[in-house]
Request: fold
Amino acid sequence: MNSRKITLSSIFLSLGLLLHYITPAVFLGVKPDFLLVMMFLAILFLDNRKEVLIIAIFAGMIAAFTTNFPMGQIPNVFDKLISAFAVFYLLKLFGTDDKRSNLVFAIGTMISGAVFLALAIPMGMGSQNFSRLYPSMFLAICVPTAILNTVVGIFFKKIMYKTNFIKVKA
Reply:
């Protein structure tokens, strides 16, 4: 990873940390994860799986430090790892220049939310509540966050394209 990628990734993750930290909890201690969209933007210009792994681990650690969900630290790390690689491969499939690549913000957020809830609900609230809580929390948190992350991701992607910050078409 060269110094430009390290710098850009650290800027994105720092902005994601700020947004993740100041976002209030919405439903049962869960808050929309704006750190995800910043991680996805950092993945836009990464070339290999090792770089994606590093970004995903750091994003997971940042999210683990700022979570309000009971026992949400471990699920945060796992959901960032899984969604980062899903987005990386989706971007390889779609390409970063295609309009379809904007869907990775929604798809990645849904994957992240599904993994997080599947791990966090049994760990933090008990497995007896899983079948009742999972669908309602997915609809209450993941779907609106996916929409919001898509809008924010497209906005930042357009800014990067207009300023020639990195070579990505919006």
